[in-house]
Amino acid sequence: MTTLGDRFDPRRNSFDVLRLSFALLVAIDHGIGIRTGEQWRWGLSTLGDFGLDGFFILSGFLITRSFLTLESFPRFVWHRFLRIAPGFWVCLLVTTFVVAPLVLQRRFVRVVGVGRGGGSGRSGPGVGVVDARCTRRACWSGRRLGRG
Asked: Do 67 and 41 belong to one domain?
């Protein structure tokens, strides 16, 4: 006879496939929204809503199972930290040292100090940044950046 523990054995279930499917629903919804500016709707819900709700419900079930298995709150917190922290730091470092420089290189010729708006004393978003399309002082005055 099969027990409930056998049915929910972590090595023999499809929870990872379900979580991947829910995450893909969210990614597809974002992709459609970015590409077309529209979202598929069923009533008041979108495709991403179904994916997010399902992902969080299933993840909550798995995290609760982890907590009940460890039987100690400090140990549970330590295990969660060890699972989350490495991915967080890798993501932070890749974003800082790979993604951000690539975005800046693509968008701007160079970035100079904020507040150096061509001697005008202005500061704020866009001031002190040379647009890649700018070749003359007109860029510093704000005319090419849509402010003049």
From this structure: yes
